[in-house]
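I have been asked to look over a protein record a colleague put together. This is what I was given:
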Amino acid sequence: MSEKNNIAVEEKDVWQEALENEPWVAPIIDIYETTDDFQAILNMPGVSKENVKLKVEENNLIIMGKINLAEVRERNYVLNESEIGNYYRRLKISDLVDVEKIDATMENGQLKIKLPKHERVKPKNISIK
């Protein structure tokens, strides 16, 4: 970490270098809403959960997934319709979302992100006395 104008600035990391120096694609995403949360499903073939990074930064959810590009480039494709590259997506997060409770799972190249709503915005039934 370095200091510049009295503001902490993180040194470049492996993920940042990948974004700048390697091809990247936006993963296909579906988002739906329930009473309690928003659910996002992203398809990132070839990515294991160890190679996924999620972070919240200034009301944005940043999603990155790394693949082994050298291995992919060595393949002798007969047909290749898939975009090849690391995955990157930035989503604006509503203030309805409780960022402290965001949860994610990764299985078979599919990332599922649960974005819970704050209790204050969930519908409530009021009993009549």
About this structure: The helical segments are 14-21, 69-74.
